[in-house]
Fold Internalin-A.
Amino acid sequence: MKEESKLTRRCNQIVFSFIAMVLITFSSLLQASPLSKEEQAHVIIVTSPTAQKLQKLADDIGTDIYFYVEGLTGRLGSLVDRNGNTLFSPSVVVYGKNGRISATSSIPRLTVLLSDSGEVLISIGGGNVKLTSEIITNLKSAQYLSFWSVDYLFDKLDLSQFSNLKAIELMWGEIISLDLPADGQLINVNIENYSLEIINNFDKQQKLQVLHLSVENSIGYKKLENSSSLEVFKLWMGKDSIDVSKIVNLKSLSIFNVEYNSIKNVVQLDNIKSLTFWWAKDERISTISLPKSVEVFAMIVSSREAIMPLVNLPKLKKVIINSDTIRGLPKFESIPTLENLPQLETLEISDSKLTSLDGIEKLTSLKYVRFENNEITDISALYPLENLIKVDLSQNKITELDDLGKKPNLNVVRLNFNPIEAFDFEMVSNYPYCAFTITGTPFIRNAPKEDKLKLKNLWQKGHL
């Protein structure tokens, strides 16, 4: 039945090709109306040697393949989101159907967008669709590749001859080695693959700007050292070491399984704006200084001793420090050292068994604080912070809400799932533009009828 289905598809292709040639001939001879866009696209597909070769190779292994033509039946989707951030997943916008095709792990198909000359522009595969090395070879003119959970019928993905390739996304799928283009035109790369052991030709990617790499069993990325083009780098550390301070133009750096030797000289990155270190446990990390240019700093720590003091950082605006809830939960007890941070507006320390907010009163520029899922009982340290706009103290051990002091811009205070048994209605009235949330507290469950009426009144006014 399978062979019969293949034969039927090939016969249909021959018939469609014949019809296409007839349409072209009669349009020319009879000076008929121009072909529709769909008909023009079909002509390009059936007369493209590349498309027909890909169709045959796909038929041979039972792979469903769909073709579209740029400007006629489809186009390249946007490569940035509404906020201007890079989208790694290229998509094909299908005309007439208001559809968008992106790689997924659930739909087994190969989608190809052709140019008007019949060459491959984009290829998208997913859902365990089968791919042979011959199919890959015939995609070599592509500018964008996106493969999600495809079934590679080979061990080595060779993209060395893909001289037009600007962006690739390779999510999962079993391959052992990867050759990037030898003539490096890559700008964006996103690879998440835990079977991949080696990646070649990183040193040839002279235009690479954005790289997300989750390859904990791999080597090859050390050759990124001395890259002058890379600006955004997200790395799940594999078997290679790498000195990130040599990637001199980095603006954003995120490292999972961070090692001391990789970041010990991070202070040399004069252009860096965002730093994220995941699962830090080496105590030597606490001795590292950060560059003065950093604006956002986030850290997931596996050891209290690995936390570095954040001192004298004039541009720092946001700090996130959380415990590693997966690999061990260190107890913070108190706020880490945060001093001389004149522009710090956001501070988040959650899931860390924090018991005290002492020290936060010095951070007078704070506007947004989040201390969710800790063991805080006393919030008096917030009293001097007059610029606060939002406060999240959900899931702590707060039993009563004290006066928060002068806060003209206070907008939200979240106290959900705290053991609050009494609610100071008079104090709340001092903050007419603030909404307090107290979901899951004993007071909400046990409030007398009179208090419930007061709560309803506050809710109607937008205070709850």
Remarks:
- Residues 449 and 455 are 10 Å apart (CA to CA).
- The chain has a mean pLDDT of 89.
